[in-house]
Recover the amino acids of this structure.
């Protein structure tokens, strides 16, 4: 029997190793798997590379993981945003390495990893500081830069509904990076507001097919990110 | 008569008149967001948000906000009938694949060759952040920049070459400022409209690149 359901958050994050690349869904305070991040903090893995759109706000969840010194490197499109005090302090002190990636390139690099594509050429960032040092090719008269796939050891994702095979739906614009990150990691861990029976999600409405998901844990009343 | 400088809302109202019926439009953070308030209601303009929305509506009534329904600036929004929700990679395929007809962006500097700088000043004190700016600059079918004509200290923001780090090279089609509407053409900057009462020589003095006045130029009506 294929059953990806996990009874506790602690078991859901078991086995995440030091040095892992961890993809974390979310855009602002929406779609961030706060409870999985808290479980990862408890679990203790360190020297992590975090891939996320933002670098946390306030002192909770992503910001707390950073503040505890567990993250050596962050790959981000918009690390400096309202309340990103922890990241800014670490960055100013030289205690965290930043790889800044245009948002669409960040997402497409993870899609490439998930789809088995060894990179791609894009006009985004061509002729800019973020394109410097990258292989450049003129395609149909326009400079393009080469971008590599971005693969995760682990993905932590917030979903709305999930079933025991790992099929997922999302809630409104909390969907954003979830589906792409789910396909880009070796170990994809989903926290869902509700775990339903097989067939409880209309096949036409499945957003992330279960093949991309390894573990599912129910968090019935998830917190918004950046509230602590 | 002394020259009139447009307010932010007047710039937004002027831009709104030029947005075609049926256009798919991405509004940048800040001044561009105001444009939606002035688009004539008989036009179907479909607003895109980089976090996976087509058919974004106005801000919700107080108490009706949903923290999972926000725009690129993380402000609560609504959906109009016919709206669609999708994931981030699709949202950026719409941008990067040229499906978005028009991106309205804020600007720090624009150059006569259409280069845009709007993400960083090069000041190393602050950690950088780019978001979707480079994707929008490079990918949208048309890019219009909305900004003040000069910086707070009076320094021109329209230049022969940008001094700030570029967001995208050679992508700006049109510039709307508090003083003028300017097309970026292969022959350089062409002034289509000027603020009421403004003399061309005064506009040139406030512009760091050579500008030409279109034969059929008009005063901006707001």
């Amino acid at each position: 029997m294929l059953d990806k359901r996990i009874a506790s958050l602690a078991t859901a994050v078991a086995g995440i190793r030091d040095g892992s690349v961890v993809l974390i869904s979310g855009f602002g305070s929406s779609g961030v798997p706060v409870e999985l991040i808290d479980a990862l903090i408890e679990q203790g893995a360190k020297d992590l590379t975090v891939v996320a759109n933002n670098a946390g706000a306030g002192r909770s969840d992503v910001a707390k993981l950073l503040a505890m010194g567990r993250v050596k490197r962050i790959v981000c499109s918009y690390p400096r945003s309202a309340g990103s005090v922890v990241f800014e302090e670490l960055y100013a002190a030289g205690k965290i390495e930043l790889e800044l990636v245009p948002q669409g390139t960040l997402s497409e690099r993870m899609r490439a990893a998930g789809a088995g594509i060894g990179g791609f050429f894009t006009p985004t960032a061509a002729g800019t500081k973020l394109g410097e040092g990258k292989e450049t090719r003129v395609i149909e008269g326009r400079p393009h830069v080469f971008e590599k796939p971005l693969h995760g050891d682990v993905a932590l994702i917030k979903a709305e509904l999930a079933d025991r095979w790992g099929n997922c739906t999302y809630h409104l614009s909390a969907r954003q990076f979830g589906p792409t990150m789910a396909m880009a990691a070796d170990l994809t861990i989903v926290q869902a507001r509700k775990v339903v029976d097989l067939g409880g999600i209309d096949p036409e409405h499945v957003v992330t097919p279960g093949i991309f998901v390894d573990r599912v844990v129910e968090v019935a009343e998830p917190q918004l990110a950046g509230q602590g | 008569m002394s020259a009139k400088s447009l307010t932010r809302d007047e710039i937004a109202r002027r831009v709104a008149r030029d947005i075609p019926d049926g256009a798919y439009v991405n509004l940048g953070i800040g001044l561009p967001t105001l444009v939606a308030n002035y688009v004539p209601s008989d036009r179907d303009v479909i607003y895109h948000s980089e976090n996976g929305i087509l058919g974004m509506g106005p801000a919700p009534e107080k108490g009706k906000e949903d923290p999972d329904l926000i725009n690129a600036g993380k402000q609560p929004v609504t959906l109009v009938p016919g709206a669609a929700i999708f994931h981030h990679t699709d949202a950026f395929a719409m941008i990067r694949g040229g499906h978005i007809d028009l991106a309205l962006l804020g600007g720090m500097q624009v150059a006569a060759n259409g280069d845009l700088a709007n993400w960083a000043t090069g000041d190393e004190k602050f950690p950088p952040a780019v978001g979707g700016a480079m994707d929008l600059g490079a990918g949208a079918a048309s890019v219009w920049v909305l900004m003040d004509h000069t910086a707070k200290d009076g320094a021109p923001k329209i230049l022969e070459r940008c001094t700030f780090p570029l967001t995208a090279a050679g992508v700006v089609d049109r510039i709307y400022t508090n003083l003028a509407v300017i097309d970026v053409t292969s022959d350089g900057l062409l002034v289509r409209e000027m603020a009421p009462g403004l003399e061309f020589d005064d506009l040139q003095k406030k512009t760091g690149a050579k500008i030409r006045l279109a034969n059929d130029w008009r005063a901006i009506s707001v």
Summary: DSSP finds five helices and 13 strands in chain B. The mean pLDDT of chain B is 95. The interface with chain A takes residues 49-53, 66-70, 74, 85-89, 91-92, 95-96, 120, 126-135, 137-139, 165-170 of chain B (CB under 8 Å). The radius of gyration of chain B is 18 Å.
